[in-house]
Design goal:
Number of domains: 2
Strand order of the largest sheet: 6-5-13-12-11-10
Number of strands: 13
CATH superfamily of the largest domain: DD-peptidase/beta-lactamase superfamily
Strand content: 5-15%
Oligomer: single chain
Radius of gyration: 22 Å
CATH class of the largest domain: Alpha Beta
Number of helices: 16
CATH architecture of the largest domain: 3-Layer(aba) Sandwich
Structural class: alpha+beta
Helix content: 40-55%
Length: 468
């Protein structure tokens, strides 16, 4: 009997260790999402917990059962047994886990990041003034995107459709509305690619920049990136072909969860892991790669806070009204994951990419955007460019044109650009099983509708559209 009790105690103790290990990740996720959901998105805490945090943590046995959360002032907290975490909100920067953020803002940075000049405000109003009522056919397509499948789980929160730069339809699910910032998760990667594109256009960055040499020039200790290949360049990182030994599996203790919910500068996690492959050989999706890119990009800004640079170079020219891109504890924007924009602002960004693709934008060159959506040549990389997912050989969206590209994020976030239809479609939601977002039929129906409304291209336009 005594042996049996000892065995039971050992089993219980082992289980508690497992729960605690998973709990460290769980409380980090819960505190961060609760903080951003309440203070950045303006959503009720109860909604965030019930529709985001609890479903996500329920995928790990016992985790959600022991979870407690709270909001106090501008701090959100979470606890699972002995594991606990806090995330704190700062105006202009959003929420960051685990204590004070390294100060990277000038006294006026927070205020200036919230200013939208009069010209941009006028542009914003014009873009979203619907000139005509939404056609009934479009309304029915969008209703299908919100309809729940058998068993539920779709949880669409917002859809915005733009055609030829004008709003043609939008719909929201309570409590979300046009002013609600929503997290794009990995859609931040596409934004980061565009920020780099601006700096490349200015000559401040180049795809051929050697990563190890750049880190050395920035004064980073060689111990931090001792296993990094000397052959790695910026393009390898942006195309997810760095070869770094970084796991993107989202299990407790994995590289990506340690990076996002640990307590150090995020960019240091991937560069400290060494190489699994030589750069350029194999495509391996990695949020770590993008956070190294973010570190390198931010170090081209000099002493200027990144929110001020974004306000001047991106937000004001695009008439973005309420973006908020969050940093890690070291003050570096989490380029892999933590961008929060309204659905309308995500649509404006999609229009930016569409305009750049067609060569009619002044911020991003056509050459850059076409390069960013050129299929990779490494093993497994044909459907990825530089921060964008591609429809190479129509593998992702079989019923859409091959030059369709999109920005995609966890839980069913999409900004889809269909150049031949002059169409941008934004879908935001909380879809744990991402296949339930079922975007293929929605996008195909929208594309078919608008392509039928458009005049047929001239031979010259067909040639221009086919250019790489």
């Amino acid at each position: 009997m005594r042996v049996s009790w000892v065995l039971v105690l050992l089993i219980v103790a082992g289980l508690m260790v497992v729960v605690h290990s998973a709990g460290k990740v769980g409380v980090g996720y819960a505190a961060k999402q609760l903080c951003s959901g309440v203070f950045v998105s303006g959503l009720p805490a109860k909604f965030v917990v019930e529709n985001d945090i609890e479903p996500r943590l329920a995928t790990v046995p016992l985790l959600s059962r022991f979870l407690t959360t709270g909001v106090d002032g501008e701090t959100a907290s979470a606890r699972v047994l002995t594991a606990q975490a806090e995330a704190t909100y700062r105006a202009g920067y959003g929420c960051t886990l685990h204590g004070d953020v390294a100060e990277s803002a000038t006294p006026n940075a927070v205020a200036s990041a919230q200013v939208l000049d009069l010209a941009a405000a006028s542009k914003a109003r014009t873009m979203f003034e619907q000139r005509n009522a939404t056609p009934e056919a479009i309304t029915q397509i969008i209703e299908g995107a919100f309809a729940e499948p058998a068993g539920g789980g779709r949880n669409t929160l917002a859809i915005v459709v733009m055609h030829r730069g004008q709003l043609v339809a939008e719909r929201y699910a309570d409590p979300v509305n046009p002013s609600t910032r929503l997290q794009g998760w990995s859609m931040n990667k596409s934004l980061m690619a565009s920020f780099v594109g601006i700096q490349v256009g200015k000559g401040d960055m180049a795809l051929t920049d050697n990563v190890a040499a750049r880190l050395t020039a920035l004064g980073v200790s060689p111990k931090i990136f001792a296993g990094l290949s000397d052959a790695m360049n910026l393009k390898h990182l942006m195309s997810m072909t760095s070869g770094l030994d970084f796991e993107e599996r989202y299990f407790p203790g994995d590289d990506v969860t340690e990076m996002l919910y640990g307590q150090g500068p995020m960019w240091q996690v991937p560069v400290g892991l060494g190489q699994r492959h030589e750069p350029g050989e194999v495509f391996s999706y990695s949020s770590g790669d993008t956070n190294v890119v973010s570190f390198l990009w931010q170090n081209t800004l000099g002493d200027e806070p990144y929110i001020d640079w974004l306000q001047r170079e991106v937000y004001a020219p695009l008439a973005l009204t309420e973006p908020l891109l969050e940093p890690d504890v070291a003050g570096f924007q989490v380029g892999s994951s933590f961008a929060n924009l309204t659905a309308r602002d995500w649509a404006r960004v999609g229009q930016w990419w569409l305009d750049a693709w067609h060569g009619r934008d002044t911020l991003l060159s056509q050459d850059w955007q076409r390069t960013a959506v050129t299929p990779g040549v490494s093993a497994g990389g044909a459907n990825y460019g530089l921060g964008f997912w591609l429809n190479t050989e129509q593998r992702i969206f079989p019923n859409l044109s091959e030059n369709t590209f999109h920005s995609g994020g966890n839980s069913g976030q999409f900004v889809v650009v269909i150049p031949e239809a002059e169409l941008v479609v934004v879908r935001l939601g909380l879809t744990l099983e991402e296949s339930k977002s079922a975007m293929e039929p929605v996008l195909a129906a929208l594309s078919d509708y608008f392509v039928r409304q458009m005049p047929k291209p001239t031979p010259a336009e067909k040639v221009a559209s086919a250019l790489p």
